[in-house]
Specification:
With about 575 residues, the protein is α+β, with helices and mostly antiparallel strands. The chain has four domains: about 100 residues, no CATH class; about 100 residues, TATA-Binding Protein (2-Layer Sandwich), CATH 3.30.310; about 35 residues, no CATH class; about 250 residues, no CATH class. It contains 13 helices and 24 strands. Strand 11 and strand 12 form a beta hairpin. Its main location: membrane.
């Protein structure tokens, strides 16, 4: 009896049927046949006919040959992996260099600070990486490569699923895993046991002649195809997200509202295929804002909770509903999400002109400069008349601190982000604000090029600390500014993204497919039972995997042990007894 399971070939055995083993090995791959046998460009065969027609035909065949060769290279898995690596590499500049689509202001600052490399970056389209010609070329080539690779593989895999397991090679002992034994069971009984056993192990079984062929592990090829299909889904989701996306920001002061139209945004950017009609119809109003902070310890003044209480509605005549928006918990309306990004304070001021009339009244948003919400801002007054009734313009700029440390603290910076001791520090200007020129201007900055600063009685620049309820009086009866109180503001981002669900599904499918292709092994098992000269039955079992694996001999050994429960092994006859039986 011989029950050895080998994981190698016997080099002393002559190869009598190479075609059977080679066929068994080649059919384990889902790669199209033309990938496994690359044709030489232009090798169409045939005899070239003489004359111009023959030369034209030959040239056409050469061009077609090179085109076919190029297509085979493009749709090969090797090129697909190279393109995937290049796409990842091409994304690096988009993370290191400011992008126009993300922050145009930072791009302008980069150009001013790097006047040598900025023109080069401009020519290489490094400020617009994801819409550049070279990035798009890699992206499209990768998409075509994956599609051209997957389609023929899918059809071939379907054909393999419908096909029967290949017949057993004549020499099973040439397989990587092999075992044999003698038994008293009849060959038909052994083959029947093999069919039952292998079928119970979820092998596809086919009996032909004196052998049973079985195959298992199709999920490996299915996982491989699923992984590459998922990559295409990810590419499509990424493209859709870039073409049909929109993103806009809006700063809303407590009590004010917002309607989802282009004119309402402070800043807005979108994909090339996104139009104003694609905006979801909704609006909301900021009712209140709650912010809590850690009181002491190393995390003092760290935000614990940001919550914006809003009233929102869908459609022009939608019913109003109340809800809250918190950090990482956006409001979802239609296909849009409203995120809470930041918050700050808006001092409420009343400005009177030289005639005693109210020239401006309302809250003015000041932008935070540190974690304690020390904020800077400006107040611009365009409808103003001086003491003589002449039209003019006023501008105030300065700081707001929610918690002033006191005159003895020696600093104007806020000591806490909470509204405990609010103070305004302002200076005043008069002149041309530059608004009548029609040029875009930052509402949070004051252009003082064409303005004059008010002077105090001692000749110094007029600057004053103002508490709620106090008034800053301008010299020579030019007017006044009263600090009425403080409101809060919140900054929201309205994002419309398409393809996020497809991207998530593609990522999960890619992980599942990759796991299947890595951990599932495609393998075949053959069982042959033939009568021996002594009247017993010789049983042979062999296994073949797509790749070398130590699990294959172990699995074959387990199958052999299960087979021997129904077809037990008996001792093989010795050479002396065989010779005696022959005499």
């Amino acid at each position: 009896m011989s029950e050895d399971v080998t994981n190698g070939r016997d080099s002393s055995v002559a190869v009598d049927e190479p075609d059977a083993e080679d066929d068994a090995r080649s059919q384990l791959s889902t790669a199209p046949a033309e990938e496994r046998a690359q044709a030489v460009p232009g090798s169409f065969g045939g005899v070239r006919a003489p004359g111009a027609a023959g030369r034209a035909l030959w040239l056409l065949r050469e061009v077609a040959g090179w085109a076919r060769w190029f297509w085979r290279q493009l749709t090969s898995m090797r090129v697909a992996l190279i393109l995937l690596f290049l796409l990842s590499l091409a994304s690096v500049p988009g993370s290191l260099i400011p992008q126009t689509s993300v922050d145009a202001v930072k791009v302008d600052q980069f150009r001013q600070q790097h006047d040598v490399v900025a023109p080069l970056y401009e020519k290489l389209q490094l400020f617009d990486v994801y819409t550049s010609v070279w990035f798009s070329a890699i992206y499209i080539l990768l998409f075509v490569s994956l599609a051209g690779c997957i389609v023929p593989r899918s059809w071939q895999f379907v054909g393999q699923l419908r096909a029967r397991p290949p017949r057993a090679p004549r020499r099973l002992d040439r397989m990587p895993a092999y075992t044999t034994w003698h038994t008293d069971a009849e060959p038909d009984e052994v083959l029947g046991t093999a069919r039952t056993l292998l079928g119970g192990k979820r092998f596809r079984v086919h009996a032909q002649g004196d052998a049973v062929a079985a195959e298992k592990g199709y999920l490996r090829e299915a996982g491989n195809l699923l992984f590459h299909i998922a990559l295409i889904v990810l590419l499509l989701a990424f493209a859709a997200g870039q073409l049909w996306k929109s993103e806009g920001g809006k700063l809303i002061i407590q009590g004010d509202g917002f309607s989802n139209t282009l004119t309402q945004y402070d800043d807005f950017k979108s994909g090339s295929l996104f139009g104003p009609d694609d905006l979801d119809s909704f609006g909301f109003r900021l009712e209140d804002f709650t912010a809590t902070y850690a009181k002491d310890g190393p995390d003092a003044t760290t935000p614990r909770d940001y919550r914006a209480d809003i009233t929102y509605w869908e459609g022009a005549d939608g019913k109003e509903k109340k809800t809250s928006i918190e950090m990482n918990h956006p409001l979802e309306v239609g296909g849009s999400k409203v995120y809470l990004l930041a918050h700050g304070f808006a001092p409420v001021v009343t400005v009177k002109d030289g005639q005693g009339d109210i020239a401006y009244r309302g809250p003015v948003a000041f932008l935070p400069q540190d974690t304690n919400l020390t904020s800077s801002g400006v107040v611009k007054v365009t409808d103003y008349r001086d003491a003589k009734g002449r039209k003019d313009q006023l501008g105030f700029q300065g700081f707001f601190v929610p918690t002033f440390g006191g005159a003895n603290s020696g600093t104007m910076f806020s000591q806490s982000p909470e509204l405990d001791y609010p103070v305004l520090f302002l200076t005043a200007y008069r002149g041309d604000l530059g608004l009548d020129a029609g040029l875009a201007q930052n509402v949070y900055q004051l252009d003082t090029d064409n303005m004059k600063q008010f002077k105090a009685e001692d000749g110094r620049a007029l600057a004053q600390k103002i508490l709620p309820g106090e008034t800053m009086k301008l010299p020579d009866g030019a007017g006044s500014l009263k600090f009425e109180g403080v409101k809060q503001w919140a900054n929201f981002q309205v994002s419309h993204q398409v393809g996020n669900g497809w991207a998530l599904g593609g990522a999960l499918a890619a992980i599942a497919g990759l796991a299947g292709s890595l951990f599932i092994q495609r393998r075949r098992v053959w069982v042959r039972a033939v009568p021996a000269a002594d009247g017993r039955t010789v049983v042979e079992m062999a296994g073949l995997g797509r790749s070398e694996s130590p699990r294959l001999p172990e699995e074959l050994s387990d199958l052999a042990m299960s087979m021997q429960a129904e077809a037990p092994a008996v001792a093989e006859p010795s050479e002396e007894s065989a010779e005696g039986a022959g005499k």
